[in-house]
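Re-running the complex after MR caught last week's input typo. The corrected sequence lines follow. Everything else is unchanged.
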Amino acid sequence: MIRNQQEEVQALQDTIYVIGGKWRLPIINSICNGNKRFREIERSIPGITTRMLSRELKDLEMNKLITRTVYDETPVLVEYESTDYCKSFGPVILAMIAWGKEHKKKIIQKS
Amino acid sequence: MIRNQQEEVQALQDTIYVIGGKWRLPIINSICNGNKRFREIERSIPGITTRMLSRELKDLEMNKLITRTVYDETPVLVEYESTDYCKSFGPVILAMIAWGKEHKKKIIQKS
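Corrected-run output:
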């Protein structure tokens, strides 16, 4: 079977496009790990600002990767949850975490 | 075992940082697939310009992800090859290609 190179490149670039930038995957990972509240998610991602997290969550909700549920309590409770579609990122995220950890070991060995 | 969230986020962001942008992974993938010559690599990646490919190849060589060998022939023959370290990206790339293909099916179904 001839591998379709152009189709693979396209699939790869589509994925890179959806992942888009520094914060998207860490947020998806955090929510997939069970963090539901804004502050929980924020605390689990070192360096993210409230503003960036807020913007990314809106974007992820628009793209159907997460759901946002508002419970009518006092004070109002808002919960974020990952959709099944979002969970399909699992293998990508795990492969990237594994690579990042190996990469760090390599860097530490060298220095 | 408690999962170390911050370590995972760091590993994820390190990987995103090394992957860096739209072209890096498609180039790595192309070279891992056996393309060795500049023009071969260029042709396998739709939309990339000669200038971008040239810049990315230099960067990948500096980071020890590929090697560049010049053979003293007429005309001079230059070959690019991936290092073992580069091949460690394999699982990440395959997971991303698989996700991108599924994503495309999903998008086509909806429209």
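None of the earlier attempt is carried over here. Chain B has one domain: 10-110. The first strand of chain B starts at residue 66 and ends at 71.
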